[in-house]
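Check out a protein:
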Amino acid sequence: MTFTTCDLYDADETLQSLSLQLQNLGGRARFSGPVRTIRCHRDNGLVKQVLNGPGDGAVLVVDGGGSLESALMGDMIAAAAVANGWAGVVIHGVIRDRVEVAGLDLGVKALGSNPRKSAKDGAGELDVVLDFGGVRFRPGAMLHSDEDGILVAP
C-alpha cells in the first residue's frame, strides 16, 4: 500500500483521527478496509468466531474497554485472520504471542500485550457502533492505518 494517513488527512479533514497511541504489533504496518466491530470484555470467543470467517479485506475493530488484564487475540486467531483474508485488527485492549503475531501478514494495532488468556464464552456484541479514542467506528466505514495512526471515515 502506498497511502499515508498524513496525506489522506490533508486531502480530507473530515476523517476522524484516533487519539489513542496504539502499538503496531502485526507484520503489516499499513492496512485499510471496511470496518467490522465487536464489543467484548475479557472474552475473545466472538473475536475467534469472526476472524475464522471470511474477511474480504475488512478490518475488525474490537472494543475491549481498554482492559490490560487479558489478551483478546493471540497467534492462532491472528493466523486464522490471515488465512481468511482480513486486512487487520484494531484492539482497544491487548494481545498475546506478540513475536508470532509480528511475523504474520496482518495489520494489528493494540494497547500492548499480556500473556494471560481471556474467557472463551463468546460474550459480546457484533457489528455495533463503537466509540473510543475520539472516533466513532461504524460497521462498513472505511479505516486506514499506518505508522502515524488510524483514520476512519465519518
